[in-house]
Amino acid sequence: MPANRFNNFTDYGIGIGLRATHYDHILTRKPVVDWFEIISENFMVDGGRPLEILDRILEQYRVVQHGVSMYFGSADKIDREHLRRLKTLVKRTKTPWVSDHLCWGSVDGRYTHDLLPMPYTFEAAKVTAQKVREVRDFLEVPVVVENVSSYAEFHVSEMTEWEFLNEVVERADCGILLDVNNIYVSSQNHSFDPQRYVDSIPAERVAQMHIAGHSKYRKYILDTHDHPVIDPVWKLYDRAIQRIGHTATLLEWDDSIPSFNEVHDEALKANKFLASSALATAV
Amino acid sequence: MKLLALQRRMAQAVMTPLTPSERMRNVSPRGRSMRAEAASFIKPNDRLTSFERLEIYNRQYWFRIFSALAEDFPGLRAVLGDRSFDALSKAYLCDCPSTSFTLRNLGGKLEGWLRKHPRYGGTRQKLAIDMVRLEWADIEAFDGASVPALKTEDLAGANPATLRLRLQPYVQLLDLRYPVDDLLLAVKGKNKDDEDFASNAFNEKHRRKRVAAVARLKPADIFLVVHRVDTWVYFRRVEREEFTILSALRAGKTLGRSIDAAFRGSSIPVEERAQNVAQWFHNWAALGWFCLSEK
Description:
The structure holds 2 protein chains of 2 kinds. By secondary structure, chain A is an alpha/beta fold.
């Protein structure tokens, strides 16, 4: 399922996150990279260096926007200023799709700047789906939602996380950014079978995938994006690719960021799994 | 529990300040046991209590916003010292939590807040205020809007009595009691050095130098324009008269009135004024600071 309506019928390969520490390398060496993912909020400004750099990147690379603060799951109304700035950026980047997280993070106009977990209730699914639709209608590009890592569960939940994800995307008729590292982290924190999660995802809705590293503590795992991808996550990625097919894949590395080449090489390890998936499809 | 009610309760807990040892408090802001509060909406698991699971988010929240504020105000941290800066950060962020989708705006209310809470600036309150103003101007100049600069032909036939020039939105004007521009440049240079040399001994030596530099800083009125060239932010000191003209233009006054205001009480000899004004405008135009007023 390389191209579908949720990723605007594109067939992107392996990308990496565009990070300030790599700007010089990218702009001077011009490495071959299939695409870059940008954090939308970093470029939703009025001018200056962020937009200057972005424009230079856009001259040579394909860019996809990934947001961190739309908070589809917040009971608050959508911040119209946020939406207006996001749309301005969408026009600039011509991103084929826009992603953000299936979470909440603000209430009564106060922002936590965190990806807080959803209560898996039908009420929350309805509120979230309605917001996804509002955002998509305003932006006029496909909107896809990403499953987050979580460290807490709520008494009020009425379903599993993957059932909640399916409920939201069906109601909103939107795509999924499937983060297999987040599935792994949450599976360890909440003691569920990550493969069951992957197997329950509607494959036809997956627009993109994320892979990343994390940090293991004595009693829980934190999604820190500061390490290479571990083998169990690669195995989960393999499983997902076998089910879903060749999918645009991005490595997230946001802290203790190593050299550009080290990050890119880590991302390109996904090729092994994408190739075996392609072979299986051909046979 | 409805979605909004749950989110309000969790956000209140998450945004409750940490203990001095950076753990979650035992008592909620409403005076309830935080353990009971956490257990009322968060499930425990086989390794973590409800309290411990909520604490992960509580700590993440404060670590993230402390770090964002410290990153944006290294000069203020240098002025106040680490301990006072941490106390100020905690008090400010309790009073003024983020109301923006972006952390870029986290320090937007800091100047006004600090003026109302002088005890956090202590004996260096005025210096601290100046530094906050400069660091916020630095942020605004970094990613503020720019519009096409004025060209010479745009001014053809213009009448100074009615001409209104607009400054680029990213240009920031500051009248300061202390020469904090030098101090901030020194601090930023020092922070860069710290990244290059991780040795504790090296850091300690530089920390002492920084403290000494702050202690030596004497009041001296300066007029500063924070602007950018080729996407990099610069601090440019200007004369009081230059500052008055630029401020008046920003306030929407005509060119003629702006220049008149600048030389009221000026010590610049009358015969030199025309030449000065010409030179200033030449410099400002070369830096692309002007655009036509929409008024």
